[in-house]
Amino acid sequence: MNYKNLLEDRSGVSPVIGMILILSIVVVSIGIIYTTGIPFIDSMKHTTQVSNAQNSFSVLQNDVLEIINGPVTGVGMARITKVDMGGGSISVEPQNTKIQIDHSGSSNPVTAIPGTISYKYKSRGVVFENGAIFSRYSTGSFMEIDPMIYASDLGSGNIGLMIHVINVTGANSSIGGEGTGKIRTSFNERGNLYSGEVNSVNITISSQNNDSWGRYFNDTLSNTGLASSDFSVYQSGGNVEIEIDVSGSGNYIQLSIYETKILAKVE
Asked: What is the C-alpha to C-alpha distance for residues 131 and 116, in angstroms, rounded to an integer?
């Protein structure tokens, strides 16, 4: 046999084999896209949608602050905040949280039901609660924007503690699906619940974001210069309890508690 002719002979090559190879490459490529590409695209869509909602809730908080601080000329006391739904849902729940503030010298604690405005998309969520904005995860929450609760160092071991309760009132309402959702907020009423010098304050917050509230109060009180023995933060179940007591050192807490009620509904 001629060795050269054997190497150059192409009679054993079949078009069927070539087609099988091409189809195999196409099938493998499609499998790779389905197993890696599509989940990645869904993840990016998920992240983008939640990020858009966080931005909208940042605008919502600003709108609420404008309502609290007074009407803007030509606009009035009501605001409408738009949220890209993207398949998620928005709900107003006025009765699902609670804050109780007790202080020395009082037999009747201040109790308020701040309520929440929330956006949910799959396993993630964004929540407006008592003036703060939270990101919700399956494992807990993270405070994105601080509430109107401040503690300041007044010197000589004394502190100022100002608590402004933002109370979401009205009826339960919700909306879901695609398109643009609207959150309408308007002023209801405002009151000064307490102002004076006290030696101790106990705050109990019942909330699904209790982990974030605990971290916030721990950081806020630590930055006032209080000794670690002057305050404590406990978490149990869905509650967080904050205890501040400066009576042993002969100091005082300048406590101010305000409440603004906001009417809210989604449409």
From this structure: 9
For residue 1, list its beta bridge partners: none
Number of domains in the chain: 1
Q: Residue with structure tokens 């400066």?
A: 246
Q: Which of 63, 61, 50, 58 is nearest to 89 (CA)?
A: 50
Measured distance CA(82)–CA(102) in Å, rounded: 37
Supply the pTM of this predicted model. 0.81
Q: Which two tokens mark 22? A: 């091409």
For residue 29, being part of any structural domain is answered with no
Pairing of strands 180-198, 253-266: antiparallel
User: Distance (Å, rounded) from C-alpha 146 to C-alpha 162?
Assistant: 13
- 76's CB contacts (< 8 A; 6+ apart) are none
The string of pLDDT tens digits covering residues 77-118 is: 788 999 999 889 999 999 889 999 999 988 889 999 999 999
pLDDT digits (tens, 9 = 90+) for 232-253: 999 888 899 999 999 877 889 9
Residues 94 and 169: beta-carbon distance below 8 Å = yes
Between CA 208 and CA 57 the distance in angstroms is 18
Domain interval for residue 168: 43-266
Cα of 222 vs its chain's centroid, Å: 23
Give the separation between CA 113 and CA 216, rounded to whole angstroms.
19
